[in-house]
Amino acid sequence: MDLKELSGLPIRLDSNGYLVSDPNVCIDETRTRVLDELTEVYLDKTACRGAEAAYWMFNGVYLESDSLRLRQAPIRYELTLFPDKFIGREYVKSHGHIHKPEPHSGIDYPEICEVLVGTAHFFFQTLDPRGPSSSEAFYVAVHAGEKIVIPPGYDHLTINPGPGPMLFADVVALSCGGIYQRFKDAGGAAYLEVEQAGKAQFIPNPKYKALPALRKAVAREFPQFGLCKGKSLYAAFLENAGENWQFLWKPELFKGLFPDLNTLFNFD
C-alpha cells in the first residue's frame, strides 16, 4: 500500500502490514511496544504477556532533504503502526497516558494526529487513579486522511478497531513526554473496546468505581492551521514548524485558540 500521496512521505505498508520507507526517509528512533509492557492496562492479563509486538513507534521522521529546515524546529513528526489483532477480547490499543505538563505554564502539551491507514478510535477521559473513577469519557473515530487535535487535560489512548492494520502520524513538541503510571494504577481506561456478538463495542472497565456515560464525537477541521483533508500532516508540519503551531510547545496559548471541547469536536 503506497502512502506517498496521502502522507507526503515515500512510505508504504508491505503485504505483511509492516512499514517500509525509501532510503531518503530519516527515522531518529524506532521502538516496539511488547505485550509485557501492556499487561496492566488490558482486561485479559493472561493474553497480554510475552515479548510479542503489540505496536511500533517511529519517532523523529522526516525527509533527509528537510533536515536543515527542521533542525531548529521545537516539534517533531512521528508514526505509530498497529497490526490487525486482538489481545484477549480487546482490539489492540496503545498503553495510554496523559502528557507531562510544560514546566512554565503547568499545562500538559497538546498534540496533532492524522490517520494514514485504517480507522483509529481516539479515546479520552478524565481520571482519578485512586478510585479509580472518571467523570468524563468520549471517543472519536478518525479515518484515513482525517486529523484530530489532542487537547490538554485528558488521559488518552488509541485503538485499532480493524479490519486491517492502522497507521497514524502525530506531531508533538520535542519536550513532550507521557505519564503512563496513571493508567497502570487504574487497570486501563474507563471503557474497553471488545468484540461482542461479532461487533466492536465499548464495555465499562470493571475496575472503575464510578463511570460517566461514554460519548461519541467527530473531529473538526482547522484549515487555518493546515488541518484539513487534502493536505498531509507532514506538509502542514513543514509549513508550521515555526510560528503557526506555537500552541504545541506553548500550551498556554491553546485555550485562546480552542476555548472548549465543542471548538474541537462535534458531539452526537
Describe this structure in words.
- The protein has 268 residues and is mainly β.
- The chain has one domain (4-267): Sandwich (Jelly Rolls), CATH 2.60.120.
- 11% of the residues lie in helices and 38% in strands.
- The protein is built from 6 helices and 19 strands.
- The protein has helices at 4-7, 67-70, 181-186, 233-240, 254-257, 261-264, and strands spanning 11-13, 19-21, 25-34, 53-63, 75-82, 86-87, 90-91, 98-99, 111-117, 119-125, 137-143, 147-150, 155-159, 166-173, 178-179, 191-196, 199-204, 214-219, 265-267.
- The strands form 6 sheets. A 6-stranded antiparallel β-sheet has the order 3-4-5-14-9-12, covered by helices on one side. A 5-stranded mixed β-sheet has the order 13-10-11-18-19.
- A hairpin with a 2-residue loop joins strand 16 and strand 17 (199-204).
- The longest helix is centred in the last third of the chain and has 8 residues, at 233-240.
- It is globular.
- The protein starts with a helix and ends with a strand.
- The model has no long low-confidence stretch (mean pLDDT 96).
How is this structure best summarized?
The protein has six helices and 19 strands. It has helices spanning 4-7, 67-70, 181-186, 233-240, 254-257, 261-264; strands at 11-13, 19-21, 25-34, 53-63, 75-82, 86-87, 90-91, 98-99, 111-117, 119-125, 137-143, 147-150, 155-159, 166-173, 178-179, 191-196, 199-204, 214-219, 265-267. The strands form six sheets. A six-stranded antiparallel sheet has the order 3-4-5-14-9-12, covered by helices on one side. A five-stranded mixed sheet has the order 13-10-11-18-19.
